[in-house]
Specification:
This protein has about 300 residues and is an alpha+beta fold. The chain is built from seven helices and twelve strands. It folds into two domains: about 170 residues, no CATH class; about 100 residues, Alpha Horseshoe (Serine Threonine Protein Phosphatase 5, Tetratricopeptide repeat). Helix 3 packs antiparallel against helix 4, helix 3 packs parallel to helix 5 and helix 4 runs antiparallel to helix 5. It is elongated.
Length: about 300
């Protein structure tokens, strides 16, 4: 009786799931989401991870009978040369960029793309497609391609059991995305462009929308320009510091103004602002540490 009631309960659960929403069951090739921030941009990849499962030597290398897979793979290898591959398992792999990028030097607009690959022994074709919600690559159409790039595969010293995407060589405005599985690895470079120019626009928006007594965007913006040696924006940054000083003179904004003026070659003005900051710091309770600024002011005086 208890067993019967249990089975009825399970069937009820399944039927209810079908009525009120699709039943979500686990896949053998597990889903993974990975994300990497590069500069001010976000790169997100969603894919499913197949395993070799004893098929070593039977993943790559055979020749496809057709460019598009027609059904379950019955050939001598799982990922044939010359055939469009979902670059993972189950649903096609997707990759999303929060800003415009270049892929191996070729432009690609911000957005979410289906990611496919056509392997060959010595060169792969990597595809970024408008179609980002397919099951596999069975309905792939080339006219949905937004970008194709070439990439040279490498051989892994140690076979990788589970397919993986990784972000390598992550720098200020670029990174390498690498797909690896079994004995093959293939990658492409993503460059997110002129980060500094975009950040200055963010700063301008923050300054425009700040409260009258909130000087943080002014000070932070000037600091960003100064630290990144953005000479074309020095005058604008100086204006931000002057706005901050109008609200309230502090050791911080006066020191920042002095250093920016010195960087601009305006040594006399830099010395005046620096000495004012030092005087304010010494008269504070408790006194501020102005030793570093005092040393800089002395250098400016010696190089006038």
């Amino acid at each position: 009786m208890k067993r019967t009631l249990f089975l009825i309960g399970v069937l009820t659960l399944i039927l209810t799931s079908n009525i009120f929403g699709q039943l979500s069951l686990p896949y053998e090739s597990n889903r993974q989401e990975i994300m990497q921030v590069v500069g001010d941009a976000k790169i997100s990849i969603v894919y499913h991870r197949p395993n070799i499962k004893g098929r070593a030597g039977k993943i790559y290398g055979c020749k496809a009978e057709s460019e598009i897979q027609k059904g379950n793979n019955t050939g001598p290898c799982l990922v044939p040369n010359g055939q469009v591959w979902r670059a993972g398992a189950n649903n096609n792999t997707t990759i999303e960029f929060s800003t415009d990028v270049t892929i191996n030097g070729q432009a690609l607009s911000a957005g979410k793309y289906g990611f496919f690959a056509i392997p060959q022994d010595n060169e792969w074709t990597l595809i970024f497609s408008k179609a980002n919600d397919q099951w596999g690559a069975f309905s792939y159409k080339q006219d949905q391609d937004v970008l194709r790039v070439k990439a040279v595969p490498t051989t892994l010293a140690t076979p990788r059991e589970t397919l993986a995407y990784e972000f390598d060589n992550v720098a200020a405005n670029n990174a390498t995305v690498t797909l690896s599985w079994e004995t093959k690895a293939v990658g492409f470079t993503v460059n997110v462009g002129d980060i500094n120019a975009r950040v200055v626009n963010y700063i301008r928006d923050a300054i425009k929308n700040r409260k009258a007594d909130d000087v943080r965007p002014l000070n932070q913006g000037a600091g960003f320009v100064f630290n990144n040696k953005m000479k074309a924006n020095y005058e604008e940054a100086l204006g931000w510091l002057d706005e901050s000083i109008k609200v309230k003179e502090t050791v911080g904004n006066l020191s920042a103004k002095a250093r920016l003026l010195a960087e601009m070659g305006k040594k006399a003005d830099a010395i005046a602002a620096g000495e004012k900051a030092i005087q304010l710091g010494k008269s504070s309770n408790p006194p501020a540490n102005t030793t570093g600024l005092e040393s800089e002011v002395q250098k400016w005086k010696g190089s006038k």
